[in-house]
């Protein structure tokens, strides 16, 4: 089947998605409507989906959809109710990695241009729905009602909806969500409707006791952008169509921290063009949320790690705002083209931050980002495709390839292109690119060809020189693992100062350097540079140095969790036992996947018992995606028997 897809895809010149089992080239999903009855206490959802498909082949006899651990009850025609035969094809060793196939036998042969309307009745629970994080009421601040949140990226939406779970397909999305407890508020991707628009698909006992929410999004999105939160949450306006959503206890503090959202939106629109999605809402989730942020349209998710108290962590909010143009409006066609979302997004984020914080600060962000990307490359292997911008995720869960690599190498490529094309023309290129590919899913070659044609048309005098330079590096930059073929200039005295201070601490062997108090004036990104120098030279960092640094700067139990994360990495590398309780506290309170994967890898190597004990202790706190990732990491470090 994949071979057939590949042949068809090559005919049209587009990359195939190797991480879907659906026959999305023969038939494409156009619209998905879901109806969910939530049981958050039982961590169970009674569900029905209603989909519209467009036929793209001449003889279509079946529809294959992606599913993961879903209990499929029935498939039937929307208009007649006629039940269709369905079969679940177990994918063997891929079943728990990427799921299985729901193969639906159609009632007749359909031809190109026809539409098919299907309903699927199914249910799901916390054991199988790896996209969902179910929190008990005891895990929330108020401890009154349970909480639910989702994380569908990369290919986890198939664990909550049977569909074509690929960024190659964009769908209109609508939803009806019913809850038994009126204290539970629900938000989903799309606009919340305040009048019943969609007829219920099922009959419910005691319907009048249920609270009903409905949502609608009239711009097509890929499945991974579907998101939901449900719990005791409220929203608060931050002005000009922007809102913050959180648990009631936190809402005022979070809204204050994010009070500049209207300014960020204004700056982004001035640079890249009009915002088309409507209101902008950002949810600060509980600490179990596995990422820094997630860009669902009209419902951005963000980790509480961005709330520091001085607005220094809000770069994540700007990054997620940028996704409204790159990622959500123009989307990478598959997970090998993830950099088309994230590289562009980092570029836009840093354009805005350079206006707000200055160019030197953004250079530090680029240095820190590159350091994180290189750490991932070392973990993957410098010759592994996961260390490239175009990872090969065949027969792999694409979550495994998630790292800073596509973010930073993508950013570096765009920054290099800007130096060739020049700043103002490059801004015009970005606007033209978004307009040209608006609402589409594309691959790197489509972007590449558009770029070359744009240069020919808009840089006529020196177009051939620019094109030659682009052609020299493009395929290397995208496909070759390891560092980018050209190093961009990010030199700044802020970097030198932080490195010199870190070196002085190492050289002092426990003596406090003369310039030690400089650290207290550093912004978080400069503190990160300081700590990265110590990490890179950890073999020279003595216990006495760690003790004095901690006494001087109070880094164990540090409030800024991004800074704390690097300190805890250093603790585990140096084997500074006195700081272990800080690491324990961190992995018990922070659910961010990128932090936990690195820390558990170091724990597995250097503190094997703590790795297994702390993971067992916190497994129910972590999102299912994170649990799977840590389990895979710990397989490298078998549990050691401790003899008392």
Automatic annotation (TrEMBL):
GO terms for molecular function: metallopeptidase activity; zinc ion binding. It comes from Paramecium primaurelia. SMART domains: Leuk-A4-hydro_C. InterPro entries: Aminopeptidase_N-like_N (IPR045357), LTA4H_cat (IPR049980), M1_LTA4H (IPR034015), Peptidase_M1_C (IPR015211), Peptidase_M1_dom (IPR014782). Binds 1 zinc ion per subunit. Belongs to the peptidase M1 family. The active site is at 320 (proton acceptor), 407 (proton donor). PANTHER family: LEUKOTRIENE A-4 HYDROLASE. Pfam families: Leuk-A4-hydro_C, Peptidase_M1, Peptidase_M1_N. Keywords: Hydrolase, Metal-binding, Metalloprotease, Protease, Zinc. This is Peptidase M1 leukotriene A4 hydrolase/aminopeptidase C-terminal domain-containing protein. GO terms for cellular component: cytosol. The lineage of its organism: Eukaryota, Sar, Alveolata, Ciliophora, Intramacronucleata. GO terms for biological process: proteolysis. Residues 496-634 form the Peptidase M1 leukotriene A4 hydrolase/aminopeptidase C-terminal domain. Its cofactor is Zn(2+). Zn(2+) binds at residues 319, 323, 342.
């Amino acid at each position: 089947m994949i071979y057939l897809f590949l042949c068809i895809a090559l005919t049209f010149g587009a990359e195939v998605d190797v991480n879907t089992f659906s026959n999305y080239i023969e038939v494409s999903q156009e619209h998905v409507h879901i109806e969910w009855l939530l049981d958050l206490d039982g961590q169970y959802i009674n569900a029905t989906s209603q989909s519209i498909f467009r036929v793209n082949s001449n003889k279509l006899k079946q529809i294959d959809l992606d599913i993961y651990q879903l209990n499929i009850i029935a498939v039937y025609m929307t208009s007649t109710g006629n039940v269709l035969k369905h079969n679940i094809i177990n994918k063997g060793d891929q079943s728990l990695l990427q799921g299985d196939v729901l193969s639906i036998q159609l009632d007749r042969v359909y031809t190109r241009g026809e539409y098919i309307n299907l309903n699927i009745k199914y249910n799901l629970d916390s054991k199988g729905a790896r996209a969902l994080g179910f929190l008990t009421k005891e895990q929330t601040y108020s401890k009154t009602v349970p909480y639910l949140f989702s994380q569908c990226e990369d290919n986890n939406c198939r664990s909550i909806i049977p569909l074509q779970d690929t960024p190659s397909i964009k769908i209109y999305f609508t939803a009806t969500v019913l809850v038994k407890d009126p204290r539970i508020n629900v938000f989903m991707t799309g606009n919340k409707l305040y009048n019943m628009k969609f007829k219920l698909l099922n009959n419910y006992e005691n319907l009048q006791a249920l609270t009903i929410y409905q949502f609608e999004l009239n711009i097509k999105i890929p499945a991974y952008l579907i998101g939901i939160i449900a719990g005791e949450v409220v929203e608060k306006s931050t002005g000009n169509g922007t809102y913050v959503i959180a648990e009631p206890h936190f809402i005022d503090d979070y809204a204050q921290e994010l009070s500049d959202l209207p300014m960020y939106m204004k700056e982004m629109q001035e640079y890249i063009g009009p915002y088309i999605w409507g209101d902008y809402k950002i949810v600060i989730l509980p600490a179990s949320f596995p990422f820094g942020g997630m860009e669902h349209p009209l419902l951005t998710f963000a980790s509480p790690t961005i709330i520091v108290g001085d607005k220094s962590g809000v770069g994540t909010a700007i990054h997620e705002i940028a996704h409204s143009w790159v990622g959500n409006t123009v989307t990478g066609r598959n997970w090998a083209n993830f950099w088309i979302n994230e590289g562009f997004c980092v570029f836009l984020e840093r354009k805005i931050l350079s206006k707000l914080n200055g160019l030197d600060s953004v250079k530090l962000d680029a240095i820190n980002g590159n350091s994180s990307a290189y750490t991932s490359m070392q973990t993957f292997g410098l010759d592994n495709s996961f260390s490239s911008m175009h990872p090969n995720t065949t027969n792999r869960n694409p979550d495994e390839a998630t790292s800073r690599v596509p973010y930073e190498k993508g950013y570096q490529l765009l920054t290099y292109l800007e130096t060739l094309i020049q700043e103002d023309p490059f801004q015009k290129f970005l606007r033209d690119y978004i307009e040209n590919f608006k609402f589409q899913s594309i691959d790197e070659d489509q972007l590449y060809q558009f770029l070359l044609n744009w240069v020919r048309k808009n840089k006529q005098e020196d177009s051939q020189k620019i094109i030659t330079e682009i052609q020299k590096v493009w395929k290397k930059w995208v496909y070759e693992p390891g560092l980018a073929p050209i190093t961009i200039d990010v030199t700044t005295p802020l970097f030198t100062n932080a490195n010199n201070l870190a070196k002085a601490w190492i050289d002092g062997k426990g003596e406090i350097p003369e310039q030690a108090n400089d650290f207290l004036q550093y912004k978080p990104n400069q503190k990160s540079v300081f700590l990265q120098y110590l990490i890179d030279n950890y073999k020279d960092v003595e216990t006495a140095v760690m003790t004095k640094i901690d006494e001087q700067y109070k880094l164990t139990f540090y409030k800024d969790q991004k800074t704390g994360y690097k300190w805890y990495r250093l603790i585990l590398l140096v084997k500074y036992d006195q700081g272990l309780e800080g690491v324990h506290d961190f992995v018990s309170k922070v659910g961010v996947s990128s932090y936990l994967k690195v820390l558990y890898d170091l724990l597995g190597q250097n503190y094997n018992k703590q790795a297994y004990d702390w993971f067992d202790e916190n497994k129910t706190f972590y999102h299912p995606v994170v649990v799977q990732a840590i389990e895979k990491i710990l397989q490298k470090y078998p549990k050691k028997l401790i003899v008392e």
